[in-house]
Amino acid sequence: MRIMGLDYGSKTVGVALTDPLQITAQGLEIIRRKEENKLRRTLARIEEIIVENDVELIVLGLPKNMDGTEGFRVDATMEFREKLERRTGLKVVMMDERLTTVEADEIMDEAGIKKSEHKQYVDMIAAQIILTDYLNNRENVNSRD
Question: Any idea what the Cα angle at residue 143 is, between residues 55 and 141, rounded to 5°?
Fold first, then answer.
């Protein structure tokens, strides 16, 4: 059984998975869509990944503002959470994702990836960071039910 990490954005969803023992997280892919509210194919691809990888739990990044308040992106993310739970039947745990994009950029810099190529990887790496944060803190995570 694996855990899936998701970084939900307006036109992309970064996807990461744990190893079967749920010790480490690896970036898997970025699901892209043309319009923010066109989620049917995105949800279908997430379902495929869940079935193919025996996923038992989803960790979804919660895009709080730097001061801890919740802006408009949180509302969209919570709506996405509801759709995920309805469609997959899996529990979706929310994980604070502040600074994951900054951390993803730093990881890519250290790996020698050109700045011009960061955009094509950043969401997947952010999902990996969200999932790693969950694995490191799972006893203390508030599932925000």
Answer: 95
Query: Is residue 62 over pLDDT 60?
Result: yes
Sign, CA dihedral 36-37-41-46, equals: positive
Question: Domain 2-137 has what CATH class?
Answer: alpha beta
Whole-angstrom Cα distance, residue 129 to residue 107?
10
* Residue among 72, 77, 66 nearest 13 (CA): 77
- Per DSSP, the three-state class of 3 is strand
Task: Give the Cβ contact number of residue 92 at 10 Å.
Answer: 20
Write the single-letter amino acid at 42. Answer: T
* pLDDT above 50 (res 94): yes
Decide: helix, strand or coil at residue 57: strand
| Gap between the Cα atoms of 52 and 42, Å rounded | 15
Distance in angstroms (rounded) separating the CA atoms of residues 55 and 72: 29
